[in-house]
Amino acid sequence: MTLPVHHRPGRLLERSFPALGWGEPMATELDELFARMNHLLQSAAAATPAGAWSPMADMHETDEAYVVEAELPGIKREGIDVEISQRELCITGEYKEREREGVLRHRTRRTGRFEYRALLPTDVKAEEIKATLTDGILTVTVPKAQAAKPRHIEITGS
Question: How much is the pTM?
Answer without folding.
Answer: 0.60
